[in-house]
Amino acid sequence: MLxxxxxxxxxxxxxxxxxxxxxxxxxxxxxxxxxxxxxAALHQAEDCVAxxxxxxxxxxxxxxxxxxxGDEVLVPSLTFVATAxxxxxxxxxxxxxxxxxxxxxxxxIEDAEAKCTSRTKAVILVHFAGYLxxxxxWQAFARRKGLLLIEDAAHAPGLAxxxxxxxxxxxxxYGNKNMTTAEGGAVIARDRTLLEKIRQxxxxxxxxxxxxxxxxxxxxxxxxxxxxxxxxxxxxxxVGLAQLKKLSGWNDARSRLAEQYRRFIAQLCPSVxxxxxxxxxxxxxxxxxxxxxxEARDAVIGQLRDSGxxxxxxxxxxxxxxxxxERWRQTVLPLTEExxxxxxxxxLHPRLETxxxxxxxxxxxxxxxxxxxxxxxx
Length: 378
Hints:
The chain is an alpha/beta fold. It has helices spanning 11-23, 30-42, 54-64, 82-89, 109-114, 135-145, 192-202, 210-216, 234-268, 297-306, 322-325, 334-342, 354-368, 371-377, and strands at residues 49-51, 72-76, 93-97, 120-126, 148-152, 168-172, 185-188, 287-290, 343-346. Strands 1-7-6-5-4-2-3 form a seven-stranded mixed beta sheet, with helices on both faces. α2 (30-42) packs parallel to α9 and α10 (297-306) packs across α13 (354-368). The two termini are 30 Å apart.
C-alpha cells in the first residue's frame, strides 16, 4: 500500500532515544531546551516553547493573549477541527470564513472582512497544505481591523517566514507531519514577554520546572497564573533534534515530488486539477487534488485503494461536522463546501520515488475515467 504519509525514522532517532534513557532524565530537561533553540533558529526566531501538540500550542496562544468569553475569532472551516476547538477552549466564539477560491483554498480576506464585528478580536490563519498565505495582505488586514493575527502553521515547519506574521505561530510534530516527534508541537512568538508567559503556562503556571530547581539547588516555586500540563518530554525533544537536521532536505524532496505530480496529472488526467496553480512558497505537506465531480469520489477512493493507493480528504469542513453544525446551522461557505466535496489527498512524503508518483497518477487516471465512475458522477 502506497500510504498518504509515512514518517522517516531510523538509527539517528534510535540513538537519540537511547541517549535519553542513559541520561536518566526523561522530561523537561536539556534536550527540550536544545530542541527549542534549534527549532527557533531554523525560523530565524530568538526562542520558542515546545509543547505536547499543535492543539496545546493554539490553546496557550489564545489564553496568553487574553482571548475569552464575548470575543470572536475568525477561523477557516477548511482545517482540522482543533483550530476551532481551541477557540471554544478559551470560551470565545469561532466565526467560520470561506476560502479565497478553489485554486487558492486559504482563508479569504474579503470574507473575513465581511464577518468582522465589534466582538472580533483575532484571526487564526492556516497555511493549508503548507502553502503560505500572503503575509503583507494579512498583516495589513489585521492592522486595519485592530486584530491579533495567529498562525496555525501545523503544515508549514521549516520556512523562515513562518512565525513572523503576527502575535504567534503554532506548529505540529504529529506522526504525519513533515517532521515528527510522534506527538508534539511548538509556539513561536516574537514578543519575549508573551513567549515567557506561554512557557510558564505550559507547566501549570509554575515559576520554575523540575530541572530548573535542580540546577538552582532550591525546591521552592510559586504559581502565579492559571496553567496547563502541556510539557514536552525529553524523548520527543531528542527525536525532534534528529528530525530537524533532515527537515530541509525532506521539504526539498516534497517540492520535487509535488512538481512531478503536477506534470503527470496534466498529461494523464487533465480533468483533475491541482490547487495553487501559481507558484507560492510551500513545504508541500500534502498533495491535494480536485476531482471533476464530487459524486464519484468514494468510488475513486475505493478503486485506488484496491490498486494499492491510500488516499484521504483534507478536510471535511468544520462547520459541517455534527458538533459544530448543531450550533452553527446558519453558516454557509460555498467555496469551502465545493472544495471539500471534490478534494482528494494523494500520497506525498520523501520515501516516494518518481516511478511511484507516475504509478499513482496512472491509477488515478484509470479510476477517474472508469465508466462506472463517470456514470456515478452523471
